[in-house]
Amino acid sequence: MKAVRTLSKVCMTVASLFAVFGVHAQQGYPNRPVKIIVPFAASGPADNYARFMAQRLQEAMGQPFVVDNRPGAGSIIGTDAVAKAPADGYTLLMMSNTQTVNESLIPNKPFNLLKDFEPIAPVNYSDLVLVVNPKLQVNTLPELVKFARANPGKLNYASSGNGTPYHMAGELFKYMASIDMTHIPYKGSAAARTDVLSGQVDMMFDAVTTMSENIKVGKVRGLATTGRVRSSVMPELPTASDEGLPKYEAVIWLGLMAPAGTPEAIVTRLNMEINKIVNAPDVKAVWAKQGAVPMSMSVPAFTKYVAEDVAKWATVVKVSGAKAD
Questions:
Q1: By CB distance 3.0 to 4.6 Å, which of 93, 116, 173, 290 could disulfide with 83?
Q2: Phi and psi dihedrals of 114, rounded to 5?
Q3: CATH number for the domain formed by residue range(s) 127-225
Q4: In the CATH scheme, what is the code of domain 2-124+253-320?
Q5: 244-267 residue pLDDT tens
Q6: pTM above 0.70?
Q7: Is the dihedral of CA 171, 173, 175, 179 positive or negative?
Q8: How far apart, in whole angstroms, are the C-alpha atoms of residue 212 and residue 201?
Q9: Domains in the chain: boundaries
């Protein structure tokens, strides 16, 4: 009986120490620079919003938040670097639905998204837009589908890499429109965008936030956006669903994660600060002009959202037959 009481006291002492550590971690964090690894090339939405969030987090938390771009292997290289980093809150991942897609598209990865990471908070989402180079003589989505069906395999589309939202938007489009196109993956959205603008590639699904200006000046022709409703940035463009592909939807969303085992107090603190940033009126106003919609969730809600997105894209990968080229 005495041994049981002694064990009980030990357990209570250990629990108290963990509680004290949690409070100390929250109060003392951060006390040095925090690195945000972006597993994508510079100039894309993930990079742009990572830098925006880094600046705002630095202002809110009093320490530098430094963006570190580590693209490659469809985001696997940078994501794995975070999975293997110390779980101390000083290495974070700017992720997108690329990571949730890769859980089924690339099963033999060195990490498991749902086991090796702690979801912190979402940041925002934006519609994609299907654009074609003006050399391609199609002006509407139905015209594009008709041309593709009459010329199977002739058209190609660019993406920022295997598993990215741009890739999966194209694969979902191929499946729902019953057409055949060739996927050309790049190491980043900037390179893919450049080749579509120059006419080296026929088309691309790209973020509204980065392609809208090119559409407005006529460098590419916008055919349709990919959200449930028309984009507030380009309301003149119909949605793909409006143009003959009912229920077609493909967006890009961004969020922050940390290595599994990161103290709960740190994750909670980051979640609180991120939610304050994305809900700030000035941030909402700026993002609205860019076509980005703020996302605000608790840690449990975001954890559930990530798991559901993994399941959603697993179904799309299966029915579309999408492959990592």
A1: 116
A2: -80, -15
A3: 3.40.190.10
A4: 3.40.190.150
A5: 999 999 999 999 999 999 999 999
A6: yes
A7: negative
A8: 18
A9: 2-124+253-320, 127-225
